[in-house]
User: Fold these one by one.
Assistant:
Number 1:
Amino acid sequence: TNEREKISRHWEEFFNTIIERKKAHDNYIQRGIVPSADLISPDIVGSWQRSLDAGLDPDYITPVYLPESIMREKLVQSQGLLNAADPILEEFAEQFSSNLFTVDLYDKDLCLIKMYGRPSELEKRPKYVMPGLLRTESVCGTTSMSYALQTKKAAQLIGGEHFSNAMGENVCTAALIMSEGECIGLINVVE
């Protein structure tokens, strides 16, 4: 029971953190109250402000897609990335995917190239999430991908750290794909 109590406390702390971060997000968006740096990174708060300054609404983010002709060009340009990442991400999705998460492959411009995961889980994703979707900060606010690009390192956003209220219950983890010192794409795990 001691181990069970530790696990229970861990989950309780995790869920309390999610609630605190959501409150901090709402207080900043609605009242301009800057959260403590130990709760929300100043970089994330800065991203929230840039999102607000861009005229974004955390209650409704309008999906933006590349036109079909440009998306075809992107797929051609991303062929090397796809060739390298596809077998690894397919295997990852097959071996480790569960009904809890999916994996997305983005190019360096934060355009969704391909989604991975069990079909049953992919079907649960919002219908607007499809290849060609842009996820830049200026289009959809603070995301794990935009934060990873900004900080040049892997990033995880939990609940209210996302700008969009629709992402308030998600945990997203993004990692840069680097080649010769340049970011050529990103992997994003959505839980």
Number 2:
Amino acid sequence: LKPSTYMNLSGEAVGYWKIKENIELENILVIVDDIALPFGTIRLRGKGSDGGHNGIKNITNLLQTPNYARLRFGVGNDFPPGAQVDYVLGHPKPEELAILPECARVAGEAIKAFCLSGLAFAMNHYNKSAAPQKKATPQQEKATVPEGKTEGKPSLQQLTTPQQGKDTVPEGEAQQEPVSLLQRLINKYKK
């Protein structure tokens, strides 16, 4: 679901839909941008603190527990003191923009894994950098898995794709709040 409130009030939408649809806490996954992680790194956790993130703080307050899963998508923290808002709502660097599609693909796989196989499976397979890795050295290439093998990590074909349906939240008026990098990423790859 995409809340129609400001990010700082995300808990209102999460709490409302949790009650309305009788959603169990273990089936909730909150996706959030995180300046504490390098760009392209994703971290799945089953619970935790808000880490200073006001949206997570609001969700925790309204659910009355920090025990819900969250996927943190690293956006880095390359900004001068006091420029956090401009950085998070600004445009990514060209080198970040170049790897963004691959990062989005991996984050999407992690979300599907959570939905279809559960949190533990998703954490074991996707808590890593979603950014493409540097080219292997000749010695590393000799030690790689044969072509077509996934070394324990599921491919999208191995995960059952859920039925596509309409969003659970009807689209309302245009969003008034500036759109973050994570939200632009979600909007771009939503189709």
Number 3:
Amino acid sequence: TGTTTFSYTISDGALTDSGTVTIVVTGGVASDPVDAGSDMEIVIPETGTHDTITNTIQIPAGAVPAEDAADVFTLVYREVDNTELADETHAFAYAFDLDAYQNGTLLADYSFVEPITMTLTYDDSDLKDMDESSVALYYWDGSQWQQDGIVLVHHDMDNNEIVFTLAHLTRFGLSADTTTFELFLPVVIAP
């Protein structure tokens, strides 16, 4: 990560022009520039602990204000080590940061005008020791995991696909209740 800037001069013998180029390098996968007037789909394949999760993000036309997309507006995805995120109430199968950048500058906690759709497809191995019926997407608000503003649209457990809508960007985690087994043993009382 970092920023580098260089200048260049071009001449054809008669005309000369100079310019400056600034390159911002961020960790993660950057989308193509977002066009505010068009629908856009970003597919991030082979993610997660087992490289079996695909994250598909659909941005409807108008979700990004024209003034934000007038310059170079991109989304950057970066997977996060989910073992570092667990707390006493959440175990995570998958975690990632999704951030917006305008002209290479992070737009922290970016919110869309209209919700975007996120579809996660996963493998059963991604939910090891987790109850698939309780899978939910959470976001980190800086002090705790929240679900405000994340709407579950559809969960197809037969095809391992879950669809959410959300309107802001930050760190996200896919969590589920852990599977617990209760063992009942008879109590034998000897006379």
